[in-house]
Amino acid sequence: MRRILFFATLLSLLFHTACSDSNDISNLKAKGNARYGGVFRFMSAEKITTLLPLSSSSIYSQRVGSQMFETLLKVDPVSNEIVPSIAESFKVNDDATKFTFKIRKGVFFHDDACFSGDKGRELTAYDVKNTLEFACSKTVDNEIYWLLISKIKGAKSYYTLSKKGEAPKNLSAIKVIDNNTLSIELAYSFIGFDKLLVHHSLGIFPKEAYEKYGVELGKHPVGTGAFLLEEWSDDKLILARNSNYWMKDNLGNQLPFLANIEVSYSKDKKAELLAFRNKSIDLVMDIHVDQIDNMIGDLKTAIAGKTVKHKIDIREALGSAYFGFANTTPPFNNVDVRKAFNLAIDRLDLIENTLQGEGTPSLHGFVPKILDYNDTLVKGFPFDVVRAKQLLAKAGFPNGSGFPTVKLFVNAKVGTASYKAAVGVCKQLKQNLRVNVVLNLCSIEARDKAILSGEAKMWRGGWIADYPDPENFLNLFFSENISNSSVISNPFKYSNKLFDMNFKLAMRERNPNKRRNLFVQCDQQIINDAVVMPLFHQDFMTMVNFRVKNFVTNPTEIIDFSRMFIREPKN
Predict the structure, then answer these.
(1) Domain extent for 59
(2) Which string of DSSP letters, residue by residue, matches 371-384?
(3) Is 37 a member of any domain?
(4) In the chain, N or C terminus with fewer CB closer than 10 Å?
């Protein structure tokens, strides 16, 4: 259902986006009960400003960008195991210092003006090398340089030289053996390197796109994914089916099934739920449990035809909701203040009453249970108002006297779980410590700007795993990742030599049990130093129109739309 308005056409020309004939699928017949065609619509809580993987740090941009860009490996949404994607296979040497990848043949970039004849070419190992080198350099708004530069041999020096404009022509540790084979040499043994490569910020893009679009690359996504960009305006994005996509399902059907995906922006959760009830959108995410019956009605009511038929899915996400502290500036440069704030929060009450059972309270460490990581080995913060008051008095603020009013920067819509949690925490801090923490609702962009400028002393944070490994969470606190230009990693400015030592040892440890124990020690150190205020481990709750089939969620909260299809329910 492509829009052919003049405005949309003009935008398409301005952005040089690939116009697809993928909507002409009337003659395609799917095996089994699948159907080709249809438009899937949902809303994003935050404005999407870039689609370049290296710059896409929020879950909102990654949900859209991951439909267009693919990584070497990916997480299976059902089993949560690492499975092939652009790389069809890989092997590791005995000491886990060298990973060799076999790149899949027959994978083509989207048609785009950056290529000769506007026709997308086949992806090769050289494209993987170029993308990973970009990820190790100070170029094209690279927000995730910290992810690789300490791990790939020579990458730290490569990054430093690139900041000066003196980087060598290539990073020799990333070696192209032939068009479909690539090896990566690491600086040390790292058995979790394959997990890291599912990170959505490492989506493969062609060098030609950067050469043509330069700093505007984030507005011109050119990947190999199941969908490509068709329209981008201030109020929506429209993705179109990639008719040249390489993947088929287990019946041999060419993917994807959907003709279009339309992403608009929500004013608030109430408006989003009303849009769902009116069948203007097909999916709602980040729902609070008490909103469903009030706005939609239960499934029995829906089946009776009194509202839209829908299905609800709730699963534990690999995510931690927390409030961050500016560890190097008053009042939170005092560890006793940070500990007092943590001890004054009744996390069980927050979950059971404020959030009505949504989520799991963070009673242990920052890291949630991941595969075989035992989070219960970490001793978390108890609810202890007496001790909290003692620590606040020790810090010079008896009964909250003299404590400055603190703005809590929260990027959330009214009515969401994040909003309600923030209101609940502010209330508990007032009751238990007599301190004033005032809620400042803002966009994620405004929150990040406040953190970078130093205005934000306390803010709402949430970390959803990009890959299923404790390292992905603990990397947030590694002192070598402190940056004055990015809020993605260690915005708290936390530095602890013992944490850094154990983290480095864990990264190099090949024995899984010893590695897990070192990560537990790192997690405990975060609690001991009260670096942040862990609140709860998130649930990922979705509500989808019953007409949408093959809809599968996963703990990283990224949704694969390539296998979904639309079949209207029978009356």
Answers:
(1) 51-222
(2) TT--GGGS------
(3) no
(4) C
Instruction: Please provide the distance, in angstroms rounded to a whole number, between the alpha carbons at the two ends of the chain.
Output: 24
How many alpha carbons lie under 13 Å from residue 431 in its C-beta half-sphere? Answer: 11
pTM above 0.70, yes or no: yes
> How many independent structural domains does the chain possess?
2
Structural tokens at position 201: 């910020």
Q: Which of 195, 222, 249 is the last residue of a domain?
A: 222
The tens place of each residue's pLDDT in the chain, 571 residues long, gives: 333 333 333 333 333 333 444 456 767 899 999 999 999 999 998 889 999 999 887 888 999 999 999 999 998 877 778 899 999 999 999 999 999 999 999 999 999 999 999 999 999 999 999 999 999 998 778 888 888 998 999 999 999 998 888 877 889 999 999 999 999 999 999 988 999 999 999 999 999 999 999 888 899 999 999 999 999 999 999 999 999 999 999 999 999 999 999 999 988 888 888 899 889 999 998 765 555 555 555 545 544 445 678 888 777 778 899 999 999 999 999 999 999 999 999 999 999 998 877 788 999 999 998 878 889 999 999 999 999 999 999 999 999 999 999 999 999 888 778 899 999 999 999 999 999 999 999 988 899 999 999 999 999 998 888 777 899 899 999 998 888 877 888 999 999 999 999 999 999 898 989 999 999 999 999 999 999 999 998 778 888 999 999 998 877 778 899 999 999 876 5
